[in-house]
Specification:
With 208 residues, the protein is of the alpha/beta class. The protein contains 9 helices and 5 strands; from the N terminus they run βαβαβαβαβααααα. Helix 6 packs across helix 8 and helix 7 packs across helix 8. The protein is elongated and about 75 Å long. It comes from Variovorax guangxiensis.
């Protein structure tokens, strides 16, 4: 698997030597990184604005002074930043059960210290690819929501009845309009939503 050159890895660890070693490792694999000495520092960064719209991954130490990695992880979940920013925990042997529990709650993976460079980079690359897929899904949903917002109120009425499976005649009766008017609105809905059938339209709307 080739590295995602435009990916960005955040490193949150209170040990400066670990942060520097990880940054060097990532540079050697042509991966960009930013590092933070505490969970508090990373939260301040998050408060500054939306995350970059590129593949992301967070390497997060479990045990740190002040706010722990686990508490930070819970706050990241609350912010809705998963799965666009997968979290890989860096953990000591004693914290493995805790890290496993975090994975069950949505963390991408964990790597036990001392970790293998190749194994860690491999997991990071998988996380970046997962992030890329999540971003693509988010973009598709935003595009779909924008198309729905462009529909007129009457077109939305017709669309709702179309995806319920009603034929044009029954739609016309329910909305007190002509069948020809239903046909026009139906065609416009299909065009704006970029679909060719009621089944495809229903499937698209489920994505929202």
């Amino acid at each position: 698997m080739q590295p995602l050159i435009d990916g960005l890895i955040f490193i949150v660890d209170d040990d400066a030597s670990v942060r520097e070693a990880l940054a060097w490792l990532l540079r050697s694999r042509r991966l960009a990184s930013e590092h933070f000495a505490s969970a508090e520092a990373f939260e301040q960064f998050l408060d500054q604005g939306p995350l970059p719209q590129q593949p992301l991954c967070l390497l997060l130490d479990v045990r740190m002074p002040g706010t722990s990695g686990l508490v930070l992880f819970d706050r990241i979940v609350e912010r809705g930043l998963l799965p666009a920013m997968p979290v890989i925990f860096l953990t000591g042997h004693a914290d493995v059960p805790t890290a496993v529990d975090a994975v069950k709650r949505g963390a991408f993976d964990f790597c036990e210290k001392p970790f293998s460079d190749n194994a860690l980079v491999d997991r990071i690359e998988h996380a970046l690819n997962a992030s890329l897929q999540a971003l693509e899904v988010q973009r598709a949903r935003r595009g779909l929501a924008e198309r729905v917002s462009e529909l007129t109120e009457r077109e939305r009425d017709v669309m709702r009845l179309v995806i319920e499976g009603l034929p044009n005649k029954l739609i016309a009766d329910q909305l007190a309009i002509s069948v020809r008017t239903v046909e026009v609105h139906r065609a416009r809905v299909f065009e704006k939503m970029e679909v060719k059938s009621a089944v495809e339209l229903a499937n698209r709307l489920r994505e929202l």
